[in-house]
Write a structure and sequence with these properties.
The chain is an all-alpha fold and about 375 residues long. It has 14 helices and no strands. The protein is elongated and about 95 Å long.
Length: about 375
């Protein structure tokens, strides 16, 4: 029985001890210790609440500088709203409202405010902060509230600064590697289809399983590309990169179109090669021409996205596809297979997806 990647314990362990995760853990630990050590010197905050500074680091330390800054600000906004809600509830308790009722009201309003998506990660802090102020504010709720907010803000600041200064995370190389592996996997799947087609051994189930696996991989690669784009924002290391900022996104779009077209190709080939009359509907010369076109498209897919190489492979794929469609036109109208033309359309879609990388005016800078 095959274990899905998301449920594989080995995948969990690999994710937990990856170089990026180890670096993030080390930076978070150092930043938390530094924030706790310096917290007693924060103005407008009482030193006994210094333990909130490491908490501020935790809410602001993310795999990218941009997300650290935005999440830290969102957490502080949610915290401020919660503190305001908690102080308001204390004022109502002072008029005689039972504290148990105040707790229920605070939680009710805090959970409702947590539905405001614009607050981002700050949504989770509204009810928590309000409850802390209500239950832990004691005889000096104003002092507790200001200490809570200022110390958390200091921790957020330390977390963002450490994330920015100490090896600011840049995920572009990792995303490029994942895109390259996906590209090669798509090319290999097309190659296997071409070989099976030429050898009269096309297996629809094997081809379908291969494309379904690529679909799951594509989702992981898309997440990696999103992280790579985000990691370049506000990152001084990102300014030294020669590759254009949108290259990963353009490569992802091309591979997404290729994967979709490959699934259509599998469906067309499944119908085209099924039944006892498959050799009649797709004679040997047309079959060989189709296999050659699939193989040429595979070479196009696996070509690094730079203009000169892509243009040469694009011409080869166009030529091979034209040779196949000419074979189809020679068939009698009654024998001309519609599925054969659908296969040609799927191959044309792959060529179109790779076409932009043949433009000599496009700045690729990829491998």
């Amino acid at each position: 029985m095959t274990v899905p990647p998301a449920l594989d314990p080995r995948r969990w362990w690999a994710d937990a001890v990856s170089a990026d995760r180890l670096l993030l853990a080390a930076k978070t630990a150092v930043a938390a210790a530094l924030a706790w050590y310096l917290a007693p010197f924060v103005p407008f905050a009482q030193s006994e609440y210094s333990y909130y500074a490491p908490l501020g680091v935790l809410v602001s330390m993310y795999p990218t500088v941009a997300r650290s800054a935005s999440s830290g600000v969102q957490a502080l906004v949610g915290l401020a709203l919660g503190i305001g809600l908690g102080l308001g509830s204390l004022a109502v308790v002072g008029t005689g409202l039972p504290r148990i009722v105040a707790v229920a009201v605070v939680i009710l309003i805090g959970v409702l405010l947590a539905g405001v998506r614009a607050l981002g990660v700050g949504r989770d802090w509204v009810a928590i902060a309000a409850l802390f102020v209500l239950l832990l504010g004691g005889a000096d709720p104003d002092g507790y509230s200001s200490s809570y907010l200022m110390t958390m803000a200091f921790g957020v600041l330390v977390g963002v600064v450490v994330n920015l200064v100490v090896v600011p995370p840049l995920r572009v190389g990792r995303a490029d590697d994942r895109l390259t592996r996906l590209r090669d996997a798509l090319g290999a799947a097309l190659d296997r289809m071409a070989d099976a087609l030429a050898g009269h051994a096309f297996d629809p189930e094997a081809a379908r399983a291969a494309t379904e696996g690529l679909t799951a991989t594509l989702a992981d690669v898309r997440e990696e590309v999103d992280l790579a784009d985000e990691s370049r924002r506000y990152n001084p290391r990102g300014r030294r990169l020669h590759a254009p900022r949108d290259l990963g996104r353009r490569r992802l779009d091309a591979l997404t179109g290729t994967a979709d077209a490959t699934r259509e190709l599998v469906a067309a080939l499944t119908r085209l090669t099924a039944g006892p009359d498959a050799d009649t509907r797709l004679p040997d010369d047309a079959r060989r021409a189709l296999a050659a076109a699939v193989r040429a498209v595979s070479r196009l897919v696996t070509t690094p996205p730079e203009p000169e190489g892509t243009a040469a492979q694009l011409h080869e794929a166009d030529t091979a596809l034209a040779a196949y469609t000419q074979r189809l036109r020679r068939l009698d109208a009654d024998d001309e297979p519609l599925d054969g033309w659908e296969a040609a359309v799927a191959l044309r879609r792959v060529i179109a997806a790779c076409g932009p990388f043949s433009d000599p005016d496009a700045d690729t800078g990829a491998r």
